[in-house]
């Protein structure tokens, strides 16, 4: 069905070619996925040129392994966007982290808002009879000046591909959203997108159902804790049980096995050690963790935990967790205190740091402030044993040789940590870490773990 066109609006940004869209290869999935913010992705999708984009979630990855035709269609797509908690977990299996979850339900309305400002039109193809029409009505209501070029259902309306192509081209649509379900929508676009005049084609799954209100989306609180799949399962248990229960288990198992096959036996041993020690420590130390949290809360205002961006293996940033041992404005004061560092090199450390709280001095003395990093180990971002995780500003100031310490995961303890910590100069720390990175074994890790107990008791360099 064709809709009346609105006057177009010019946008000079349409004539500017954006920088290349960042991607990241995920070994667990054997896929290159977009690694960008929603704004970056949208700017690239709407830039001059022709693009075909698919969203990849756990279900899509399962189908890709079983269906050669779908796998071929995915391989020929211009852009693959990460969708859902499954892909995020698969990335974490190799210590990676994607910038954003670019699911279609959130990204496409944002994209259409910008498209409306640029005077672009959109055609909706798919869904049960009436669904695309209802979705178009919702979009017109929520996005000012959006031009709907036309709609067509994905049942009887999809029977004649030639008629579909002719109608879309006749509508003058700049963007085509295809909602025929996975894998039919991707296969349809693979076969026919080159014959469409539209510059952007997107396979959007259940988007029309969400927009039309035939499927109710999970509340924001459920989405925030990344349990939207459980909400969908509760809505349609018969239809989605196989996909979300058996399918998610198969997806994660296959991803884990793929990572294991790529890993050396030593890597598998070390990861087993990390998981065993961290899980055991979390259980045994839970009373101490609870008492520490209470003491921090009573002693000073502010959150119990301190979160900060650190640089992990191969330069990948991650969020480190520690018990807060400083005042809440500690980061703002850091620049003014750099001149009082007791340590040579790029890593700041001061015995008389005024930002440290009363409880902070105690938990630092016994390294209790480091214990929440157990969570980082469980998430695969850190190891029990490894170099100290550096700040991004420190890494920027590294001499070339020091970058070698990023070849392994950072650790809660390590050669530097048991050798005097802050009393060890930066250059000496780098040499220690390079030695560990070049010769780390399971036996070395076990020795360093046992030596950690002595280092904690002595408190040498802990301030």
Structure, briefly:
With 463 residues, this protein is of the alpha/beta class. Helices cover 47% and strands 13% of the residues. Strand 1 (23-26) and strand 2 form a beta hairpin.
Descriptive tags:
single chain; 463 residues; alpha/beta; Rossmann fold; six-stranded parallel beta sheet; two-stranded antiparallel sheet; 20 helices; 13% strand
Structure description:
Residues 270-457 form the Bacterial sugar transferase domain. Pfam families: Bac_transf, Glyco_tran_WecG. It comes from Thalassococcus profundi. It is a single chain. The protein has helices spanning 38-45, 58-66, 68-76, 85-92, 104-117, 131-142, 161-171, 184-192, 207-212, 220-224, 228-235, 237-262, 265-284, 286-299, 330-337, 358-365, 373-378, 392-396, 426-439, 442-458, and strands spanning 23-26, 31-34, 51-56, 79-82, 121-126, 147-152, 175-179, 200-203, 305-311, 317-323, 383-385, 411-413. 39% of the residues are buried. The protein folds into 2 domains: 12-224, 3-Layer(aba) Sandwich (Rossmann fold), CATH 3.40.50.10700; 265-458, no CATH class. Helix 18 (392-396) links the parallel strand 11 and strand 12 (411-413). With 463 residues, the chain is α/β, with parallel strands linked by helices. It contains 20 helices and 12 strands. It starts with 22 loop residues before the first strand and ends in a 5-residue tail after the last helix. The strands form 4 sheets. The chain has a 6-stranded parallel beta sheet, with helices on both faces. The model is unreliable at 4-15 (pLDDT under 50).
């Amino acid at each position: 069905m064709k809709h009346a066109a609105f006057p177009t609006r010019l946008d000079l940004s349409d004539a500017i070619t954006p920088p290349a869209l960042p991607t990241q290869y995920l070994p667990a999935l054997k896929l290159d996925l977009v690694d960008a913010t929603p704004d970056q992705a949208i700017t690239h999708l709407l830039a001059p040129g022709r693009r075909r984009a698919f969203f990849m979630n756990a279900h899509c990855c399962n189908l890709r392994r079983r269906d050669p035709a779908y796998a071929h269609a995915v391989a020929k797509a211009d852009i693959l966007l990460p969708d859902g908690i499954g892909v995020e977990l698969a990335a974490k299996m190799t210590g990676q982290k994607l910038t954003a979850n670019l699911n279609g339900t959130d990204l496409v309305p944002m994209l259409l808002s910008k498209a409306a400002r640029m005077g672009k039109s959109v055609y909706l193809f798919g869904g049960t009879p009436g669904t695309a029409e209802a979705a178009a009505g919702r979009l017109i209501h929520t996005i000012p000046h959006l031009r709907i070029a036309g709609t067509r259902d994905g049942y009887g309306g999809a029977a004649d591909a030639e008629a579909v192509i002719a109608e879309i081209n006749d509508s003058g649509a700049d963007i085509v959203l295809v909602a025929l379900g996975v894998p039919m929508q991707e296969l349809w676009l693979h076969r026919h997108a080159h014959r469409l005049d539209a510059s952007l084609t997107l396979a959007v799954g259940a988007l029309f159902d969400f927009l039309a209100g035939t499927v109710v989306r999970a509340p924001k609180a459920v989405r925030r804790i990344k349990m939207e799949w459980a909400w969908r399962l509760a809505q349609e248990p018969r239809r989605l049980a196989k996909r979300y229960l058996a399918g998610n288990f198969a997806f994660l198992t296959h991803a884990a096995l793929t990572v294991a096959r790529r890993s050396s036996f030593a890597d598998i041993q070390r990861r087993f050690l990390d998981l065993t020690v961290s899980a055991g420590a979390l259980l045994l130390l839970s009373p101490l963790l609870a008492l520490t949290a209470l003491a921090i809360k009573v002693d000073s205002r502010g959150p119990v935990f301190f979160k900060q961006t650190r640089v992990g293996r191969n330069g990948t940033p991650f969020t480190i967790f520690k018990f807060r041992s400083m005042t809440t404005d500690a980061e703002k004061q850091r620049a003014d205190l750099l001149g009082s560092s007791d340590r040579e090199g790029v890593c700041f450390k001061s015995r008389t740091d005024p930002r440290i709280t009363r409880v902070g001095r105690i938990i630092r003395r016994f390294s209790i402030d480091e214990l929440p990093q157990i969570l980082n180990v469980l998430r695969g971002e850190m190891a029990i044993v490894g170099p100290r995780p550096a700040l991004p500003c420190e890494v920027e100031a590294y001499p070339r040789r020091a970058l070698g310490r990023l070849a392994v995961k950072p650790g809660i303890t390590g050669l530097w940590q048991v050798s005097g910590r802050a009393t060890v100069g930066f250059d000496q720390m780098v040499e220690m870490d390079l030695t560990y990175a070049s010769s780390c074994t399971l036996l070395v890790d076990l020795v360093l773990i046992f030596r950690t107990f002595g280092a904690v008791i002595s408190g040498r360099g802990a301030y």
